[in-house]
Amino acid sequence: MAGKRRTPDPGRTPNPGRTPNPGRNQDPGRPDRRRGRLAARAAAAARGAAAAGRRATAAGHQASARASAAGRLGTVSAGRLGAASAGRRTLAAGRRAAAAAGRRGLAVARGETARRLGRLAALTLALAVLVVVLYEHGDVPSAAARPAAGDPRAATAPQGPGRAATRPRAAPRPPAAADGRAGAGERTVRPAKPAEVAAAWYAARHGLPRNRVRALQQDRLSARRARVLVLADAGKGRLRTALVHVRLGPSGWEVR
Amino acid sequence: MTLRRGRHPARQGRGRRQDAGPAMATVLVAYLVAAFVLLATVYALRPHRGAAPPAPTWDYQRETVALEGGGGFNAYARWAVRSTAWLTRGSIERQRDVHRLSPLDFLAGEAGARALAGWRERHRLPLQGATLVAAAGLAAWGTMRRRPGRVWLVALLVLLGLTVLVTRPQTATRLAGQAGVAVPNLVLRGGVQGDPSGSVAATPGAGATQRTIAGRYWTAFVGEPLSRLQTGTTVLATAPPAGKAGVLGFVRGRVTAVGDWAVGRRGLERAVIATLALAYVVPFALLLVVLAMLAACAQAMVWLLCLAGPLVAPLAVDPRRRRAVLRLWLLPLAAAVGLLACSALGALVVVRAAELAHAADAYLGMLLAGSTAPVAVAVLVVRRLVRRARGQDGSGQPKVIVARGGVA
User: Fold this and answer.
1) How many beta-carbon pairs under 8 angstroms link A with B?
2) pTM of this prediction?
3) Is the pLDDT of residue B194 over 50?
4) Cβ contact (<8 Å) for A134 and B169?
């Protein structure tokens, strides 16, 4: 559009940029200059009438630019004027192209595809984080801090389903209360301590005998959490230490 | 007026039922049968032979069932009282197992979960990569496609559920097992609140309550007959098991009649008492064992359906599969929980009824002790008088009307 010459519009000045600038032609004694000033006023009026159109603003800027360029006609030669005008046109065209590309890019960004791509990226990221977290915090394959087979607590503990304890226990038992109520004199199962649980878990995890692992220190982090420092003798002088976190679950202390 | 001929409403309803699949009762029965077969198979194969979760030793486990004396009657009495103790102990322990552990979880679940966790650790990298690729692919399918539908979301949620099961198998099986154990304990805790005997409701916790109830049941059906067999009285019934030998020795040394019972000079009486004790406990013990089996099947159902939850629940996102999820998963789960609760409550009612019936018998026996003959004579006299009075009035006899041609 910038490089094309338009056919003269009857309602406006054929080329408003080339009309004499009324600000520059100040000599009232010369009739040609007066005519030029009148022509400039007419062109300005025509521009005002055409401002109701869609390209009024662009045309106005263009006209004023051309008018200012034409105002310098009296002092600048014709060759220099042509080169400057071409450069400005190129610059304006570049700006317009950049703006159009930006608008197009914005339209694409606001479009359905971009929205879907954004949704896909967010969903994929969330899923990836979820899957990685799940695998990172998965269950430990070994027995979770259950008492070892040789644990003395196992003697008082369990009868499996279907295995009736038909023989009386020979273990000593505190005497019952005088009123004979049930539960009196009950021998409760001693809950495992965090240190024992941690040592048993570490021994089971690393395939070591239980007596080769012992707890050195224990920090109570909260009422339901504790941290135990265990020392394992792996044989041949190899001593290993580890911090084991245990939690108080519904069935006692256990390593999670 | 225009009459439009349409389908009969009853036919419409029948058609809908046919489209909806099998009836709820059919689904429940099929699930229960499947759970029973699975449980029986697991019991038969016994993949897990490790130790069960710890459980305190109750008094009935310390009881020594022994009778001195020779001869056929004593031998029979010994067998009968041991059978009584075995039946009572078995019924108590089946009920304890219901309140303590989920059988399928204990026998197969824990070991399977541990094996699955080990397998996951060994193949962690390809598993995690494949999961990520599948999740990204499903997300791309769901977000970039143009056609509406939620199949991709269902598949994605199922994949996530499967990932949860694979990464946390032990937690999943433990929680599913706890769900099956929590229901009977809750029922027991709530059931004893309505018990007329305040002493049962006063014991805190489901375990202590169950221990109290089981102790009374044992005392009524084993402790008292055993005491009668050993001493001729119920003096040993409520003695602590560890002190029974001492109490018996003390009483034997001072009462000659007790010594006769203790050494087995009352073989015939022993045989009668032991037979009646065995006959008394059999129906209650069988009922308790049946209820425990039902509860075990319900627990297996709850365990399986809870474990299937992460895989099945996402299907409800798709409206077309919502009805199937409801019919084949959610309602059976609720029904299994209800069945578990009913069986636990039924067991509580049976134990209390047995205990109360036996207590009433013992109370009546105490009142009639030494006075049975006069009471029997009085009963016979009263009965005869009543019959005679009915005969005089004629109201007791049915009126016979003789009509021509037959009797009306």
Assistant:
1) 143
2) 0.63
3) yes
4) no
Q: Which residues of chain A have pLDDT under 50?
A: 1-29, 52-54, 56, 59-60, 73-74, 143-189
Of A138, A162, A187, the CB nearest to B167: A138
Is B62 among the domain residues?
yes
Residues of B in contact with A138 (CB under 8 A): 117, 120-121, 166-168
Residue B151, domain member (yes or no): yes
Which residue in the set B53, B90, B118 is minimally distant from A251, CB to CB?
A: B53
pLDDT in tens, A196-247: 888 888 888 888 888 888 888 888 888 788 888 888 888 777 788 888 888 8
pLDDT in tens, B137-167: 999 988 888 777 888 899 999 999 999 999 9
| B110-122 and B151-167 helices, crossing angle to 10° | 100
- Number of structural domains chain B divides into: 1
Q: Which residues of B touch A190 (CB under 8 A)?
A: none
φ/ψ of residue B394, rounded to 5:
80, -5
Q: Is residue B95 part of a domain?
A: yes
Name which residue leads in pLDDT, B17 or B129.
Answer: B129
Domain hosting residue B66, numbered range? 22-373
Task: Give the helix/strand (H/E) hosting B379.
Answer: helix B372-393
- CA nearest to A241, candidates A230, A249, A251: A230
All structural domains of chain A with their residue ranges: 16-75, 192-256
Q: Which of A157, A164, A250 faces B51 most closely, judged by CB atoms? A: A157
Determine which helix (DSSP H) or strand (DSSP E) holds A184, and give its type and residue range. none
Q: Which of residues 150-209 of A touch B (CB under 8 A)?
A: 153-154, 156-162, 164-166, 168-169, 173, 175-176, 180-183, 185-189
Compute the radius of gyration of chain B from its Cα atoms.
Answer: 31
What is the chain A residue with the closest CA to B144? A116
Decide if B128 and A173 are in contact by the 8 Å CB cutoff.
Answer: no
